[in-house]
Amino acid sequence: MNRILIALFTVLTLPALALADKQLEITQLAESVYLHTSYKQFEGYGLVDSNGLVVIDDNQAYIIDTPWSEEATVSLLTWISDQGYTAAASVSTHSHDDRTVGIELLNSKSIPTYTSELTHSLLVLQQKPVPTHTFKGDHYSLGNGLIELFYPGAGHTEDNIVAWLPQSKILFGGCIIKSHETKNLGFVGDASIKDWAQSIARIKQRNYVIEIVVPGHGAVGHSDLLDHTINLVESAK
Asked: What pTM does this model have?
């Protein structure tokens, strides 16, 4: 996979370059699908990563979850523009900052931003910037079926949704799905542990033919990440 590392305020196309203070990393996962990974420093934990996607349709770029800072969101928009794409819209998969912190910037640039109505209501309660568009119900389609959004029920948060990309067979699980290197559920302050496993079971019932699963944090994997997460939930119970 080709890698493009992006330093704050500067877009670089040097695959072998390692950045001491990297803000954003972009990796191609499939034709027309890119993983964007942003980073935040936490005392006691070090540099923590957060995953999102950019999905390309013709010259239109759809962002799934904003990067973890406004600066990294600027870098992502710069990269999109430099590739000759236009940012068409973004969708945030729940209300935490690692999914939504770039909403205000995107709104200021008249890029349509989407969340579920439940996520919108949580952002209002938290007095955070809100999206320009909302959707209700368990299913919603973005980009004429390019991205299929599904609400499986509560898990990592009350409002977490997942995104299915039927053309590339990629499931963006977001923070309801844990990577293999993750050995516990992490932050559960807004979680519903009693519902989490059943919500993942509902994702499995969709019978997606999955080639890649993208968790909210950590390395991408395959469909066994769903069972891995269920095992973590059962251990937490």
From this structure: 0.91
